[in-house]
Write a structure and sequence with these properties.
Helix content is 0%, strand content 45%. It has 62 residues and is mainly beta. Strands 1, 2, 3 and 4 form a four-stranded antiparallel β-sheet that branches. 5% of the residues are buried.
């Protein structure tokens, strides 16, 4: 995920919510990065979990 400089965002990170075959959900977050930088969140490579939602957290200060 990358935010451009025109958005007013100081820092951002991706947030991915996953679920397994038993219905258990968990959240994976990427590291906080400053604007114009890329942050990623890596999910399981086993293929046994699905993606419930993909989003982001934003900070406009700090």
């Amino acid at each position: 995920m990358k935010c451009d400089t025109n958005s007013g965002v100081r820092r951002h990170r991706p947030v991915v919510t996953r679920f397994n075959t038993g219905g258990h959900k968990w959240t994976i977050t990427g590291r906080w990065v400053h604007r114009d930088r890329v942050s990623s969140a890596t999910c399981s490579v086993s293929g046994t979990a699905g993606v419930y939602s993909i989003g982001y957290d934003l900070r406009f200060r700090g």
